[in-house]
Structures are given as structure tokens and as C-alpha cells.
Amino acid sequence: MTIASSTGLERILPTYARADLTIVEGDGCRVRDASGREYLDFGGGIAVVSLGHCHPAPLAAAHAQLDRLWHASNLYRTEPAEELAELLSARFGGARAFFCNSGAESVEAALKYARKATGKTGVVAVEGSFHGRTFGALSVTGQPAKREPFAPLVPGVRFVPPNDVAALTAAVDDEIGLILLEPVLGEGGVVPLEDEFVAAASALPPLLCLDEVQVGIGRTGTFFAFEQLGVRPDLVTLAKGLANGLPIGALLVADEAAGAFAPGDHGSTFGGNPVAAAAACAVVEAVDDELLANVHTRGSELVAGLGGLPVTNVRGRGLLVGFETATPAGDVVEAARNEGLLVLTAGENVVRMAPPLTVSEDEVAAALVVLAQVVTLRP
Ligand code: PLP
What we know:
This protein is α/β, with parallel strands linked by helices. It is built from 12 helices and 17 strands. It has a 7-stranded mixed beta sheet with strand order 4-12-11-10-7-5-6, with helices on both faces.
């Protein structure tokens, strides 16, 4: 039998509309293709490469761990996972961690945790939100177009508009065990939730889980985004930026809400992998006051610069910034890429940026020069 020749791309199921750009190297805020062409990476691998590509601290930590131990299983204790749990608990102010490998898995863990802790099956989530592609995470994702092809999903989920306190309050009754919120809706258009809305959620009886998969680990200018919202959630999910690009996810459970999971309730073969956890420890330690100050300063420069361009509704927190243009966001993303700048969409009309938190003043200025070209080129 003859197998038709094909490129590697054709051998990958087409779940992503990939740009025809093969990235082979990265360094700080820049990536290069095979021909050596350099791009300024203001997508950050979709808000993942928090310290910049090949940052020396997680690189050294991962290298050192590769030389010692790659995997032992969760049947035994490993040092990096325990160290990471301690570091995250210290940042949270007292929490326990469950480690997994992605954002969706961290949300799955939160959904199961809430059921076990409360005995209730209902969840309130937000219209437009995004929590992942697995069945549980998809069920609480407030985007019908993503949910409908895969129905029936997990029942018992109620969606309320973002920042609508009355709708939130009305949606909560005795059946609801969990309120799940993204502090800033990331995929859903870079929509920051208002303090009052999150405070109202926190005051209601269900457990409050903040999905910080996209906004955690310094992205908004504080280690956790919730620090700016004046609440202490029961649960927090983390992933993307946690290990600077190595796959890891985490559910954090506040000490006062801990105790629901017992051995056998949940698990993950690779969860807490020593190499990923070692890199994550280095990332958490690198997110210090100086880096967080850079997030504030560079984020403000980006927003101020966008204010002078023909774009509308500039918004975000820290280095998660979105804006709208008259033309489809995908066209702006493509035009920017052709000029050597990588940015993201967040829905059809929103251009999103999530550069490394280490981005410099010059790099922000360079990105704004490209954006000025591509947004003014639009009709
Ligand atoms: N939660 C949020 C807020 C996200 O932004 C994402 C991914 O974009 C997820 C969950 C799912 O993460 P993953 O793609 O790692 O499963």
C-alpha cells in the first residue's frame, strides 16, 4: 500500500487555524523562524512565556532537574512539587495544591473539588468566559458556539452576564456549589470583571473559584489577579505562565476550604512532574516586586500608546491588553505578523496582547510602531 506523501502539518488534526510560520527559536521577547527572520512576540505563546523565551532561571532549573529525575509518579514524594506547593501557598497566604498539566485540567479539578466539598452539582459561570476544552471545562465555558457541537455537556451550569450583580445573585440558589469567574475574561475579549461583581460573588454562599489560568503569575501586575479585587477566593486555577512554557497546571484550595479531597478522589499521572515543577519554582521566585513594577509600567505605556492610534475600547490589566478596530481582529493579527509582530485575537473583534512580563520599554515602543502601521493601513 502506498501512503500519499504529506507534510507534517497535514498529519496533525486541524483543531487550530495555524499561521504559516514555523517558529524554531526564542530568546526573551523575540522568536525566530527557520530562515532567521525575527518576530517580536506580543502573544507570549498565548500568555504563557511569562519571563520570556529561554529565561535563564527556569532554563537552569529544568536542566538541573533533567539531569537528576524526570518522573517518579505520585505514588512517592518528589522535591520540586513540594517546593512549588510551598511557594504557591506562601503567595496565596495558606493554600494546598493539586498539580496537573493544563488549564482545562485545573478547571476539572476545581469542578470535582466543589462537588465533593459542597455535595451540590450546580455552577454559576459568566457569559463569554473560557475555561477549556475538556467536557467539564467546556460545560462552564460561556461561549455557545464552542459548547453546542459537543452537547450534551455536564448539566447544572447557569451563565450570567459579566459584571451583572443582580443576575449573579438571582442565579444562586441551594443547588449551586460553585461560582467560577475569570478576573479578566481573556479568550472572551479581554473584559475585566469589576471589583463589586467579584466581591458580590465572594459574599454569596457557594465556593468561589477564580480561574487565573491566563491572568495569574504576575500577568496583571500582582502575583494573583485577585489581589487587586479585594477578595480571598476559596479556589484558584493556574496554568499557562506557571512554568514559562513547560506544561503544568494547578488547583489551589485555600486552607479554610481544604479537606474535601481524599486519596483516590482525583489524580494525574504526570501532575507535579519534577521538571515542570522545578521550572515553575524558578518562575514563581522570579515574579518579584521589580518584575511586577515592570508589568505596571509597560502595560501603562502600551495602553497610552494605543490611545493615540485609531483603535477603540482599549482595556485590560497589566500586560493583558485588548483593543478593537473597525476591521476583523484576524486581519490585524496577520498584517502585524507580516511586519514582524506577533499578537493574538480574543474573539472576532478584539486584538489581544500578552507579551512576556520582562518586555522592555524599547520593545513596547517597537510594537506600537508596527501597530500604528497596520491599524492605519486598514480602510
Ligand atoms: N482557563 C482560562 C482562563 C484560559 O484562558 C484557558 C486557555 O486559554 C484555559 C482555562 C484552558 O487552558 P488549557 O488550554 O491549558 O487547557
